[in-house]
Structure prediction request, 217 residues.
Amino acid sequence: MATPPPTPSAYFRQSSVSPSLSSSSYPNRDGFRGQLAAESPVVIVTGASRGIGKAIALSLGKLGCKVLVNYVRSSEEAEKAVDKCGTIDVLVNNAGTTKDGLLTRMTMPQWRDIIDLNLTGVFLCIQAAAKIMMREKKGRIVNISSVVGLVGNAGQANYSAAKAGVIGLTKTVAKEYAGRNVNAVAPGFIGSDLTAKLGESIKKKILEQIPLGEKGG
Prediction:
């Protein structure tokens, strides 16, 4: 029996809200930063409990944003949080995980779980946020992809496909919502809990492809 597709409510869970700083601490150097007036921008960062997502959430909090983090698994609390804030200014789709394995040995659950979280989850979060952004005629979306979505990586057919999908999805959303600012970022090899799971031989091969021979931090 086929597993039913996840619903938008499956990808949201509020973990915490970062303290925001005063508006005077927020640099006014470009369009996004120039938005800050009497109230701080409301930013949702998925997968912000660790690694890249945590760094993003902390940095935005220091800049003066109201950061809602860790929207991953449940919808009711997310809806309450959004209703409480009344708006979404920025969505950062960062949530993701890996379940690596060679193509011939990869199971359907391995494939499906990664596609569901790393790609379908991004789609559903964009869909939910876009409705608010279009209504309010403002908003920015940043999707965190990966360099493996561009070049592939042995043992990561599911992850590579999902991250490549995020790039294609981003391009499509940018065309559909031309008035919004929609971008994807494809980080390279970053030191995190996710990359710490990689075997030493895989890490060595990745580092050999980096001119500096070092991972990002």
